[in-house]
Structure prediction request, 448 residues.
Amino acid sequence: MESCPFTSIYQNYFPFWDHLSDSDRATLCRSSVSVQYPKGTTIHDGSICTGVIIPTSGCLRIYMLSEEGKEITLYRLYPGDICILSASCVLHSITFDVIVDAEEDSTCCVVGGCAFADISERVPEVKIFALETAVARFSDVMWIMQQILFMSMDKRLAIFLLDEAAKTGSDTVKLTHEQIARYMGSAREVVTRMLKYFSSEKIVEVTRKGVILLDKTRLRRLAV
Amino acid sequence: MESCPFTSIYQNYFPFWDHLSDSDRATLCRSSVSVQYPKGTTIHDGSICTGVIIPTSGCLRIYMLSEEGKEITLYRLYPGDICILSASCVLHSITFDVIVDAEEDSTCCVVGGCAFADISERVPEVKIFALETAVARFSDVMWIMQQILFMSMDKRLAIFLLDEAAKTGSDTVKLTHEQIARYMGSAREVVTRMLKYFSSEKIVEVTRKGVILLDKTRLRRLAV
Prediction:
């Protein structure tokens, strides 16, 4: 078998790798590329079967877009995760489109959709892996749906601010109201109003640099 | 092989039926029951692995429930469909709960979750079938999410009324505002307000018997 620069990655990411024939492994390698995406790049715009995207560094954001341009972030993927919804030709029962952006400078392996689909039709382990990856994302989406539809806005904003602070290790959330609203699948007006309320309650301070969390105890109480 | 009253049904519903060993088919039969559910019964409440539910008559409604008791209808299942989300033991990557009600008097075959799970671990065709059925529902849920989050309310109500009229073959939608709101994942107040607007525009007439569609042409225009 010819040498393949992706072997060590695919061994870690694909539980079926050792079950593949040499020829199938060679096909996957030949159909793979490693790409660097600067922050903000659209990696998959939903229109074609881009393929299976594996972030090896950075962070990808997967979201839905309405005809009017409204966005809802469904989930984010980090090194160790796999994006399968960008390979609609592999999963015929997926009839919706998502968009994938590089949220940070990201390096990804992209396995061509056709090659992956072809092998998944012949090797049940590959098919099962692809479907299980999609079903796990189904759970993520149900969670975000529950957040958006059922939870009250103050609770949601509190959870979002605490999550961001924990993720960045800073008590200043350096995002605009517009960005926060986008991430939460809400409207800027709603976020601004709620931040004003939090601010009047001395829970946060809204500055030009971002939202400073002043009282995390109360935020946590709101988030329960 | 012992005679199984479910054979003719399972031959139609399960594409893997002919690939199963006699012993696996007998296991599935022994683990199956046929149950009649009166309208309004909760068939699966999300807490245990009820199993794979196959409606052979009637209609099932699958929905999410918030802690505060708010409901969102995700989709409905009719004869010919299969409910796999009620078998969480088969799909380990499903981490959310849905509730299944009989929306009409319904007859269902219920295949015990453990038996189905056990066979699906050994027979890839069964696993693939279960996962593909779940992924198809993922597409349904994304659709409803798009409806709820992105579409304006007038459009959504117009689509709902036209759908109901088409489904029942009657221009009178015999549902309360509360029921319409529940099916649409909205609030009763919002539905009442929008119906009042439609009514003032002579698009519908709101009576005690239900909502009479007066001007379907305008409803269709709203629904575009």
